[in-house]
Amino acid sequence: MKLLITGGAGALGRALCRHFLPTAEKVVCVSRNEANQVALRREFAGATNLRTYSKDVRDTVAMIEAMDGVDTVVHAAALKRVDDGTHNAIEMYRINVEGTLSVLRAAWASRCRVLFISSDKAVAPENFYGATKRVAEGLVTAHNTYLAKQGVCAATLRYGNVWDSTEAVQSVWRRQVAAGERLTVTDTSMTSFYLTLEEAAAYVDQALSLMQGGEIFVPILPAWSLGQVATLYAPRAAWDVVGKRAGGEKDHEVLLSEGESERAREIPGMYVVPPEVHEWCATLWTDELPRKPVGWYSSNFTLRVSTKVLEAVR
Fold this sequence. Notes:
12 helices; Rossmann fold; 314 residues; 15 strands; nine-stranded mixed β-sheet; 19% strand; two-stranded parallel ribbon; alpha/beta
């Protein structure tokens, strides 16, 4: 594989490098954060198959240049903070929507397949960030009409917050404890799916091996609650319950809507949602697997991670 990762100097990008560098012919990481790129090159100093570039995903020509000699793109670059959607909506739209369209157009010109990294917040979006991800998902699916003519395809991998990723609540609480501060807790009943960076990279690999064009791949995961995890960092007396962030923060992560669930198929470790319209592939998943309706697939209605497991990774 000759792989390009947008947002490649971020937490997921580094995890993908750890996963793919041992076997890939080439890994190209595109990022606008020069400091993170330096850290990335330092971490993988011995990797002769790693290249890093400072490029803007909204620049289609720059993306075509970055895709030279590449056959696969994992598009992970995005503005992700829910509250940024309130104060920085235009830039979020430009990067998350226009940037995705730019990457898809560059992939079309370069004959590259694309796996887009989406979010639980794209399901019945309640905030601007989720809305941008939902629009981008639609662009990815629709672009198969063009990509198929080049012999490649595009699909989506959708999951929730990754455990201990950049600015995840675990890293925030760890800093607060180290500084002797009280924990800031939004709502103890809120839940999230449990997914580590290493697991996310493995799901990327699995989706790349299965994608035919337009699918949404969704990992089957356990979940944890905010109150459950906060107790691992400090006693309740040391918490400040501050309420949800501005911008439309959800109580629970949802990875499948009821309508998507009706089309979903179950494979080992994942649900696959085929596109409703798939003119580029007449038999897309239709006869391969039985349907697996699960209703609204929410972190509030799934198995909980044991406290013992969370203690080991906190």
